[in-house]
Amino acid sequence: MGRGEPLAETPMPHIPTGDGRQPWRATVLTLFPEMFPGPLGVSLAGQALDAGIWSLDTIFLREFGLGRHRAVDDTPAGGGAGMVMRADVLAAAIDHARTSEPEAPLIYLSPRGEPLNQSIARDLSSGPGALLLCGRFEGIDERVIAGRAMREISIGDYVLSGGELAAMVLLDACVRLLPGVLGAADSLGEESFEQGLLEYPQYTKPREWEGRTIPEILLSGDHGKIAAWRRAEALRLTAERRPDLVPKAPAGAKGKR
Ligand code: SAM
Fold this sequence. Notes:
Elements: E1 24-30, H1 43-50, E2 54-60, E3 73-74, E4 84-85, H2 87-100, E5 106-115, H3 118-125, E6 129-134, H4 142-147, E7 151-154, H5 164-175, E8 208-209, E9 212-213, H6 223-241, H7 251-256
Helix pairs in contact: 3-5
The protein binds S-adenosylmethionine (SAM).
The site of S-adenosylmethionine (SAM) has 20 residues, from strand 5.
């Protein structure tokens, strides 16, 4: 699906990119297909979508709903507030998606899942794509999580109204790692989390702004000293803001930074 095109509710044929590579394929199972591509249709992700580096299909869960009202949810077993998405309805939608995506990992966006991080995004982006199930209401029937071997991923310790925004976050993190998406091939390696540390501070023109100047070393032209300063700053910021990350940084990175 390209930007501004009508939303497809069933998977579309996947067209190889100009260099013959198959696109990385995202399929989102949702009650709100109209939310996609949304922010993924602009800037880097949108251009990559148009270029066929990745593809995005949506599957409308309501189409697999039951009865005249196409019900996808029911009251929680044991009582309590809200509604729960039915295992049989979700399984039918997943099985349909699997006919065209037999290999892609099936992910349920869930506040109970493993926290999304750069390593998960990198791992997923190196695979064929992802099938993403977006929950709504009180969530989904536990049995379908096991029954369809879902991986649960969370985007943070807070509760969203639905999995769609979480799916977009995960997709954005994966898509920008795909070959050909970012302009400068080396800009990824120094980003936050890529080497286990937060990124060093960045500056650009003007040289002085509201009395604040760019650190002299960055204007020195001495690339060795600049690299050392950046490593030191990355380590300082990480130790200050995310001390939990420091022990995970590779020994070389820690020594140099
Ligand atoms: N009752 C659930 C609980 O307490 O864990 C929350 C359900 S939430 C209102 C509805 C849906 O939003 C979930 O099924 C999930 O798909 C999505 N969601 C909410 N918070 C999320 C998060 N932090 N990460 C990923 N998905 C989330």
